[in-house]
Structure formats: structure tokens, C-alpha cells
Amino acid sequence: MHILFCSVGRRCELLKDFRKTLGRDAKIVVTDNSEVAPAMAFANRAYQVPLITDPGYIPMILDICKKEEIHAVTTLIDPEIALLAEHREEFEALGVVVLAPYTETAKLCFNKYEMYQFLIRHGIHTIKTYGTYEEFLTAYEKGEILLPVFVKPRMGSGSVGARKIETLALLKQVTDADESLMIQELMTGEDLDADVYVDTVSHKPVAIFSKRKLSTTIGGANKTISFKDERLFDFVKEVLGTMEFNGPLDMDFFYQDGKYYLSEINPRFGGAYLHAYGAGVDFIKLIQENVKGNTNPEQIGDYEEDVVMMMYDSVVIRKKKEIEAAIVSL
Amino acid sequence: MHILFCSVGRRCELLKDFRKTLGRDAKIVVTDNSEVAPAMAFANRAYQVPLITDPGYIPMILDICKKEEIHAVTTLIDPEIALLAEHREEFEALGVVVLAPYTETAKLCFNKYEMYQFLIRHGIHTIKTYGTYEEFLTAYEKGEILLPVFVKPRMGSGSVGARKIETLALLKQVTDADESLMIQELMTGEDLDADVYVDTVSHKPVAIFSKRKLSTTIGGANKTISFKDERLFDFVKEVLGTMEFNGPLDMDFFYQDGKYYLSEINPRFGGAYLHAYGAGVDFIKLIQENVKGNTNPEQIGDYEEDVVMMMYDSVVIRKKKEIEAAIVSL
Known about the structure:
By secondary structure, chain A is α/β, with parallel strands linked by helices. Chain A has helices spanning 12-22, 57-68, 81-86, 88-93, 103-110, 112-121, 133-141, 168-177, 230-240, 273-278, 283-291, 320-326, and strands spanning 2-6, 27-32, 45-48, 72-75, 97-98, 129-130, 149-153, 163-165, 181-185, 190-198, 205-213, 223-227, 247-256, 259-266, 307-319, 327-328. Chains A, B: This is ATP-grasp domain-containing protein.
């Protein structure tokens, strides 16, 4: 299999997992805007590309697909997901499977407030969310929501800009200052997440791996432990049935008062997919079958509980000259 | 060599480097308060220990040294450095080299305001620092310091609690609310750092590796590039001549208006020592010689420029049962 990872950045371990499953014959091609993207060191070929907002960007990615005879393409950064989705037909015309959701779903995942409205329309348990201070105030005065609340940007990924707000006055001040913020109920339950693979042929979720944060007595490091719950698996299927995903994705949840609440969906390989892989949930084999045109049988929950993942910092060290020499030109 | 790493946490790559230099015959023993410390997976023996504030802590570490016939001990967390220093004689009575500075130096490094006063007394270029709002205000009114400034806790490590403050009113508010904060000149120059090894026999710095942050067009990831400057090496020697270090340490600097300014010293293996090791600056061999009672010849600047380090996330994955079974009991 020849696979292209766009905006590969620091995802070295993901590439190592691909190499482990696919073997030496696989061709791993990567791109990044920066030449100092550590994951380039684990690829067969690395291209330095313009920013994804550059008009020449997609034509260049398509050219790389042609030149490298790519079978599947995906991206590791959120703002690029909808871009790949929008150009799906051009990739498919070259025989390339696009491991990204269909356009509408891609856009929903990137705008958390629109996602909230969508989920509510479809009766899916999610976190109470308000698009403006006024909307929040109306609900607050009716007693539907309490302070403190959580504010976060409606676009964007991760926890950048997210914070807890204690008072109405401060809430007004921060939302006035930054219109991109939305207001959410402060969840106090356990946070969990699931890595899911949606088969690109059958369009059904065929693998789910769920894990929760491990409480630790010291340090705030990223440590998770696998668990299984049929109710969570059913909830995942209910959510995914309302949208059009394609390939790997990562879903965040809260578990509170005996119920699961969907928090957000990142429709790409999650940073902690490494845990699923290490516990034997191999999305890479599923991609391999899909690329051949085969559907994958359902293997949901096919892993052990109490498998622990502990993250740490690793490094790539290379001479500047070697880094420059390793970049391929089109 | 038998080496003990206290509070080993996530320092997996450091342990891998030790294994690489020392070979299979070396015994790497580690402790941590948490049983889910990923670096335990790279040790020969791992002990779960009480918090460093527990009265039984040091006796237990000494017992481990006896049982494991340890030759050298060090810690990977800042609050433990002075503790090891204070008990140096008990370790030395067991034939254990303590890779930590002598007590007074250890305390200075942990209290950044006392360090500032010490550096000023010794005529060493450092960043203007004020212990209280009143002290700052006096200097501000004389025009000796401008806003914005930087506040950070006088104790503690890393950048936790550090932030830029724009106005006098806010500065008064935050320093009133948190007396642990000190006020520093906002440095706009380049930040650099150096990994240094102070020979434990000759008490001289014998190896220095310096690197600067690499400017990147995208992402805030940790990327550094090696450089050499005799003026920086001379400055390092000047600083170290005023204190009593012993073993590995990490120094942070700013370079502004053609001058180096010392920012802080962490007298332990820095998180980015991996860069030095990858560029061939092997402190582990130096420790090995010191443990044998030999001095090391000076090898300052013995590395190439333009060697790049790029950090990424890696993981340890193990079953909970295996983690529990791997913990050794005293």
C-alpha cells in the first residue's frame, strides 16, 4: 500500500505503527509545511508543501498522489479535513481513497456550535451549549444552566482558548472581547474517548476502542486505560448513524449521572490512537482491506480491558543538512 | 555501573541513552511515587516510593542504594534536588556518588529570587528581578524598569504560573493575590540553553552543549538547533565558578543587545539533554569515569553545530497487571 499523510508534523509513532503493520514494501509518503517536521524521518518520501490556504496546495497534493501512485490519503490536522473532503472526487478520479468524512460532516466537526445544534436536532445527548452571551443569559434566568461555565472557540482543535468562567460579568466581558467563543455547561463527570474506524466500503463503524483517563497521584501526564461498555458502543453507533464519516476518527465524551454525553468528534487519527494500536486494535489493516475494495467485518470491542498507555517525550535528531537533503522535489 | 534515578516519571529516552552507553551489564534502578511512570518500563528494577515529603522517604532511598549496590544517584524533579544534597554524607557513606549540587547551591537554584540576589552580588549578568510590588514600583518610578513585565513563582520549575503583565494595576492585583510571585524584566531577545556537566572529582565544568530554539513557520513544538560560541562557554564557566555544582545541569539564557543574560539553572538532567546526547555529548561516560574515581578531561564544545532536535510524543503500553507485577518490594 502507498499512503499519503498530509501535514504529518510530530506523528512519528503513528508512522511507526503503519510500518509495523504494512511491512517494508509499504510506501509511506508525507507532507508538511515545515521542513523540521519530525515525522518526516519515518517516511519513505517527504515533501515540503505550501500552507493549506495556498491556491496551489491541492493541485500539488494531487500531483504527489499521481507521482507516488498513492492508494489512500489522510491528514493529521483539523483545518485540512474539510479541504480533502471537498476535493474527494479529484482524489477518487486518481484511484485514491480519501480517509476523511464527507463534506457536510467534515464542516460540522470543525464548527462545534453547528455540531451542537445538529446533535440536538437528532436527539443525541450532548453538552448544553450557547452561541452568544444573550442566548446563555435567557437560559440562565430560566434556571436551565448554572455558573460556572466553560468557554471555548467554536472553531479549532484541542483545548486552545478553553477556560472556566465563574461570574456573569466576566462571561460578558470575555464573550464581548472574542466573538468566536461559545459557552458550555461545565461538565464534572469523567472524560472518556473512543477511537473509531468507519469502513470506507460498507460505511459502518467496524472497530471501536474506548479508554478513560487514569487518575494519577502525581503529574498531569497523559495516561489512559482501556475499558469496554456496550452502552458506549451503542451510543457511538447512534451518533455515527446521523453523519457520514469515512475512515479513522476520535470521539470525546463525558460520563455523568449514569449517562454518556458526546463532547466533540475529530474525524482523523487521534493523537492517542497509539493506545488502540498497542492494544491490538489495528485500523491500518482495515485501511489495507478497504483500499483493496473489501469490506471489513465488525470487530467492535475486540480488545482487552485495563491496558494502560503512558505518554512520554521522544526525539528525532538529525543534521540540518541531512534534513534539507531528505526533502523530495516534485 | 549501577545507577539510581529518583522520581523518574516520563524520562524514558534518558534511560534509553544510559542503556546505549552503558550496555547490558549496567543496572538501571528507578523510583517513582506513581506506579504508572512510563520510564519504569526501561529500568532493570522499579520501586514505588512514598512522596519525597514523607519522613520515611530518604531512609527508603538509602535502603534501595544498599540493596541494589548503587554507585550513583540522581533525581529528575526539582523539589528533590536539595533533599539529595542535604543527605549527601549518608549516600557517600554507602559509596554512592550524589549527582546533585551541594546544599547551598541546590537551595539557590530552587529559589529564583535568592538566586537573582546572589548573581547580582557576584556581578553576573542576569534578568532584572523584583521580590515585591513595592520594590518594583520604586525602580519603575526611577525609570529603571519598564512595563510590560513578566511574573513567575520564585519557587518551582518550568513555566507554570509564568505570564506577561501589561499594567501597574494588574501587576498590583496579581502580586497581592499571590505572594509567591516575583517580577522580572520582559526579555525580548533569543532564548538559549546549555547542558553542562560538572565533573564530580575535579569540580570543573568539563562538557558544555548549547542550543537555541529553532524558528518554525508552523506549530509551537519543541525544536532546537546546536550552536557554539566561546563567549557563552566563558560565561557558563564564570557563573559556575561562583557555585558548587556536581554532575549534570541545564542553564537557560537570553541573548539580547549583544550580551548573554543568565535566566535560571536547573541542576539536574534537563528534559532536552537528549539533544546533547544525540549530538555526541555523552554525560553518561563522564559519570562512569567519575564513579570510578577518575577525572574527565575538558571536552567543551566537542560537537557539531546545526544538529537539530525535534520532539514528539511516544508511548509505553502495558497491561495493568504487568505494571503491578513489575514493581519491586524492598
